[in-house]
Amino acid sequence: MGDRAEFSPQTVSVLAALCEEPSAWQHGYALARQTGLKSGTLYPILIRLADRGLVEACWQEEAIPGRPRRHLYRLTVDGALSAATALAKAELAEAEPARGMVRPGIGDSPRPGRRATAPAVP
Amino acid sequence: MSRLGPVPAAAGRRALRLLPAARRDWAEAVWAEAHEVPAGWPRLAWRAGGVLLIVKEGQMVRRFGILSLGAAAVAAAAWAAWPKSSVPLIHGSADQGDVIITLTLLAGLSLLTRRLLGPPDNRPARRVRVGCYAAILAIMPAKAVTDMFVGAAPHGGIDLHTFDALYDNGPLPAPGSVSGGPDWGGEIFILFITACYVAAFLVLTARRAKVAPATLAIGARAGLALGLVMYLVDPLGGGKLASDPWLHGSAADPLVALAWVLLFGAPMVAGALAAGRCPLADDPGRASKQRAWQGVAAGLVSSGVGALTVTALGFGTTALMLKSAWVRGWLYHGQHLTASAVYGRELYASGGMAFYAVICIIFPIIGLIMSLSGSGYANVTGPQPGGGPGGPNGPGEPEPMPDPPAGGRLADAGVLAAAGALTTLRGG
Fold first, then answer.
1. pLDDT greater than 90 at residue A37
2. Distance between CA atoms of A79 and B415, rounded to whole angstroms?
3. Collapsing DSSP states into helix, strand and coil, what is residue B172?
4. CA–CA separation, B154 vs B176, rounded Å?
5. pLDDT exceeds cutoff 80 at B141
6. Would you call A71 an interface residue with chain B, using a CB distance cutoff of 8 Å?
7. pLDDT class for B159, splitting at 50, 70, 90?
8. B16 and B27 in contact (C-beta within 8 Å)?
9. What digits encode the pLDDT tens for the residues B72-119?
């Protein structure tokens, strides 16, 4: 489970939204607003995460009169760890292209086949 | 919009039934959450997402595809077996009756078994069931073709004399006429055998019959081997004149010997293997019954699959031989046959189809007896309940695993710790 750390960007956004308040139960609509995902995308992601034991779900205990009970979600311990790893990787991946775009200094022209890297900043 | 709102909501609630039980909560969650979404298009879009979820999770596309494929197969088989306008009325009515009753049996028994014993709940069960239906649907038009051929007297010449000599042996019928008419007793008997086979396969593959997937897989494989070898021995029924086109009727042929070995050995080995793999109850009496049931089920599946395979292939080959010259060329490759000899063989093969009815009765009886002996063997030599592998004196069960730390569910403290790790990672 933990080996398969490759999540889609949409799944990472759901994990990030759940990570905002890891111990709190969250609603589907709130997650949809946070992530900008539509219900047809959000819920299949939540189902897969729940199948993998990364998210747990339950029904709201007390119903509000005139409204149906809501389904609630939060990360499990495994889910929180996977989310942490996935978010760190995502941030790293975002940082990589930015570093690659730094123009190398004169005399530092990279050899063909070698990736240009920014000089270390103290 | 406010008038449209209740319609998708009601449709969505009904559509929940299409989902597997484990997924209904999720679709209900989408519907419940719709009350929080602003009314109008956003709510409609939210519910449309719920419909999409039902389509995806209910595997509707796959289900629709399978249903369409099944309906197309049934329609094609019924169309091929349905008598054409050139068929004399008395034969036509028999063929029509065959088609209608066979399809009613397939649909009716399937619905009845589903209600009483539940649907198949594993892949081997579904495959065995589909194979049984496919074989019966293939036999239906092939039987109609052979029935018509054997029932219609030739238009004249040497064929009419061959017909009289081989089939009727009485006064020559009027050329081009119908010889007698259908054998109503035989038709009813074949429909009865069909009903027995369909019922037996439906019961053995139903959820509450508790036949293990491995049992069905072992039985089906053994049955396919038996059926294929039997078909190679007798591809055109039991008539010696038409049959064994490449064995030349030699009883000492290795293929014939293999067929005999498989006829008795396949159900016995399948029964022993299935009984040996059966998970055992602690109670020795119950364990013995479980083994016997799995063994018998494997034997019945193997002999049933074998009988259906050889019957479908045999009927199919005979019907194709009557319709296509290249099949005759393939069957009697290298043999120079006169037109009269070809007609004689076709007529003899068509008339020898009763051989398959005998196979369909004898095979399950042999399968039952041999699988009982196979499961009995497994009961004596296999692992015993409570004794671990190797019988009561064998090594005992492994030590039980220690209990896991209390609570498999999420602990808030654990989440907070993980969140701390996340913060550290993001901060670093």
1. yes
2. 9
3. coil
4. 5
5. yes
6. yes
7. low
8. yes
9. 999 998 888 887 766 666 667 777 888 899 999 999 999 999 999 988
Task: Give Cα B333 distance to the centre of its chain.
Answer: 33
How many C-beta atoms lie closer than 10 Å to residue B240's C-beta? Answer: 11
Nearest to B411 among A57, A70, A77 (CB): A77
DSSP state letter for B406: S
How many CA atoms lie within 13 Å of A97's alpha carbon, on the beta-carbon side? 4
CB of B152 closer than 8 Å to CB of B174: no
Q: With bands split at pLDDT 50, 70 and 90, how would you rate the model's confidence at B13?
A: low
Cross-chain Cβ contact A76/B410 below 8 Å: yes
pLDDT at residue B155, as a whole number: 61
Give contacts of A70 with chain B, Cβ < 8 Å. 29, 32-33, 36
Q: What separation in angstroms does the CA of B398 have from each of B30, B156, B276, B287, B382? A: 46, 80, 20, 20, 18
Is the CB of residue B125 less than 8 Å from the CB of residue B297? no
pLDDT at B243: 53
Nearest to B352 by CA among B55, B149, B73: B149
Q: Are B323 and B241 spatial neighbours (Cβ–Cβ below 8 Å)?
A: no
Q: Which residue has the tokens 């009027």?
A: B174
User: Are residues B419 and A23, on separate chains, in Cβ contact within 8 Å?
Assistant: yes
Mutate which: B36, B55, B423, vs A, most A CBs within 10 A:
B36
Tokens representing residue A107 in the block: 């005399």
- Residue type for position B338: T
The pLDDT tens digits of the residues spanning B246-305 come to: 555 555 678 888 888 999 999 999 999 998 887 776 777 788 888 889 999 999 999 999
Q: Which candidate, B80, B79, B56, B60, places its Cα nearest to that of B68?
A: B60
- The 10 Å CB-count burial string (b at 16+, else e) for A15-46 is bbbbbeebbeebbbbbbbebbebebbbbbbbb
Q: Above 0.85 for ipTM, yes or no?
A: no
Euclidean distance between CA atoms B26 and B354, whole angstroms: 55
Which residue type sits at B407? Answer: G
pLDDT digits (tens, 9 = 90+) for A42-100: 999 999 999 999 999 999 888 778 788 899 999 999 999 999 999 998 888 877 765 55
Q: Are strands A55-59 and A71-75 parallel, antiparallel or unpaired?
A: antiparallel
Cβ atoms < 10 Å from Cβ of B67: 10
Chain A residues in contact with B23 (beta carbon < 8 A): 47
Rounded-to-integer distance, Cα B39 and Cα B2, Å = 8
- Report the alpha-carbon distance of residue B64 to residue B58 in Å, rounded: 11
